[in-house]
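This part of the workshop introduces the protein records we will be handling. An example says more than a description, so a record of this kind follows.
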Amino acid sequence: MPHAGDHVLQQPFPSPTIRFLRGVFFLGHPPATFMIAVVGTACFMIARKDAHLDVDVTFMFTSVFLVLYSIGAMNDYVDHAADRRAGRQEKPLIAGDISRNAALSLWTLAALLGLAASYCLRPAAAGLAIVLWLAGAAYNVWAKSTVLSWLPFVIFFPSLPIWAFVAAGRFTLSLLMAYPVISLLAVGLNISNTLPDLEGDAIAGVRGFTHMLGLTRALLLLWLLLAGSMALMALSSVMISHRLDMLLPGLAAGAVLLGAMMADWLLMRSRASLRRTFYLSAVCSGILGCTWIATLP
């Protein structure tokens, strides 16, 4: 084992350029941003009934990715002081990889480019992109520390498939069913997104919806919301589209993922388990949402 005074730091310290590029990459919360962009793009393909990759698909993915990147980067920008108090060294701003001024420029530029990409598809799609970006901004600057922290999620995620269908020029009134159905998934995503940060948030004085619930009740509610959304999707599919057979593979995958996250927590009970819960719930929600959207008339 090395001791103090041993020359253990033989690797050169990353150059400022490397650190800056690393900061740019992680500032926008890339795993979650990428997953949501994939879901939005999948909804766009479902709307067109065409899975071929083309320029329009690229514009849709780019728009969703950049709008989400902007929201994620703004979150780190707004939370800078709280993250510093909590010692969040995994955050690019706290690690010193990137400055606050650079972060401000990046999330502003990403938002503008994301809206422009959506406008290239349809002006109405750009209008929806603005609404979704504003929902994310409201979470960052206001809702996150309140009992209404779930509200921007309930605006954003049910609107995501509507954004995609409008961008494809295929909007129908049946898509409005996304609000009651996908809202359950949205509240669950708000909970799972917060769970890994409960301890750090407590140090920073954040008291949002999930913090009020506490860890055990939040996990139970998350599991119930995912199970309830599956039941509501099945019921709506039977009553509206009569295409339950198309929904069954998604429901089966959702049930497996829900079981996996429950078993993971019950067996491991660690912060790493809570991080996996977020990713599993995000994948579960994406599969359920896309499969259900595909069954709508």
User: Anything to note?
Assistant: Residues 172-297 form a domain with the Four Helix Bundle (Hemerythrin (Met), subunit A) fold (CATH 1.20.120). The chain has a mean pLDDT of 93. The two ends are 65 Å apart (CA to CA). The longest helix spans residues 215-241.
